[in-house]
Amino acid sequence: MSSSGVLLAGADFLAALLLLVGLKAMSHPRTARPGVVAAGAGMLLAVLANLFLDAFGRGSLTLAFLALVALFVGGALSAVLSRRVPMTAMPEMVALFNGLGGAAAALLVFARVLAGGTPGPLALGLAVFAAPVGSASFGGSLVAVVKLQDWRLPTGRLPGRRIFTGALIVLSFALFALALLARVPEMRILSAGGALALGFLGGVALTLPIGGADMPVVIAFYNGLTGLAVGFDGVLLHSPAMVVAGVVVGASGTMLTRLMARAMNRSLAAVLFRGFGSPVSSSAPVENEPLATDAADAAVVLAYAREVVIVPGYGMAVAQAQHRLQDLARLLEKRDVRVLFAIHPVAGRMPGHMNVLLAEAGVPYDRLLDLEEANAALAVADAVLVVGANDVVNTDARNNPASPLYGMPVLEVTRAPRVLVIKRGRGRGFSGVENPLFTAENVRLVYGDASEVLGRILASVREL
């Protein structure tokens, strides 16, 4: 092995080690920040080593220069986007970056096809999988971004949709296999390009009918697919760093997909093919009118409780109200009120969305309860404050077999004697399903922007 090969192997090993250490550190909020830095350093080392050592090994200074320009442009764009994108749009950014990872995996194999040569059986199988799946992940992730932005897209159930989608993906695999085996360069390029296009359309067709409420599961699903495609690329290109990164991302994305689907009491097949959660979904209309109250009365309920459970949702994220929510929790704790936060696994629009927002506001990690712990706490709480949550507290999930949400584990906030809900208006949740919770006898709504309402509640509590 040449000296550059030894250096490359050592850099790949160190990069893989940094990635694994970083991922382990990300499992706890106290060590998450250095974990992100360690994983990022590992990936940067892997990219620099593979690009520059390979370039210098070939004696190509032009290639090294182009790699440096690409790294600078990509890094600068990522840094700007990461700083400017608000936390409410973080799901969209995650979906977009994941899609770009799928596109990169597909284009790497496309470049391998352009280089010519007939790969061995193993490399052929990996390439046939990696390229169409990467392009499908790119197409599906772009649709997820658009849906998370609440842009209008057709979501109708066309006859034969599953057969059409499956045919696109199967044809994509077949065309890419043909491209790898073709001896005529023009046929190779046309077949590979057609395979990527069909894979992209397959991802779009698969994701288009899926509603917004299922987007957390979809994001995790495509994250896993992108990881697998990158890992197979690593085997094809003899890059240990890509293999480790791809397998870890693929495995974690697959596990997260299962956890998210289980949190919604749905199978992955139901999410992908039954189209739940679209804007046209609905349950029986709510007949009673919600009972409203004001911030001053809400302050009295919270200030004189012994234990309060707060349920955050996407409305809190939109209003950027997490800091005021933490201020309220601290103020109540000074009055000897025990304050806990109930976090549903699919609250917000991506896994962990609420956890990140509350951690940003300084909420202690031990105050965050998962679904099972939260429901136990709700049974003994004096009051519950729901801030911008809807689907994850929908009582139809437990009581109405006709509801699309029926069977989904939810936070059972009506166990508490008094429930306060901060809500911007009378609209439905992201699933488009009515929520009878808002008309329950022990529930009072405080209408308005979450940040403004919490500000009024804070002022009223201080006056008591």
Highlighted features:
alpha/beta; elongated; 464 residues; 17 helices; single chain
Shape: elongated
Helical fraction equals 55-70%
What is the C-alpha radius of gyration, as a whole number of Å? 25 Å
Q: What is the arithmetic mean of pLDDT? A: 82
Summarize the structure in words.
The structure is a single chain. The chain has 464 residues and is an alpha/beta fold. The protein has 17 helices and six strands. It has a six-stranded parallel beta sheet with strand order 3-2-1-4-5-6. About 2% of the residues have low confidence.
Question: What order do the helices and strands come in, and which of them pair?
Answer:
Layout: H1 3-25, H2 29-57, H3 61-84, H4 90-114, H5 121-148, H6 161-181, H7 185-207, H8 215-237, H9 240-263, H10 268-273, H11 295-303, E1 307-312, H12 314-319, H13 322-334, E2 338-342, H14 353-360, E3 368-369, H15 371-378, E4 383-387, H16 396-399, E5 418-423, E6 443-447, H17 450-463
Parallel strand pairs: 1-2, 1-4, 2-3, 4-5, 5-6
Helix pairs in contact: 1-2, 1-9, 2-3, 4-5, 4-7, 4-8, 5-6, 5-7, 5-8, 6-7, 8-9, 11-17, 13-17
Summarize the structure.
The protein is an alpha/beta fold and 464 residues long. It is 62% helix and 6% strand.
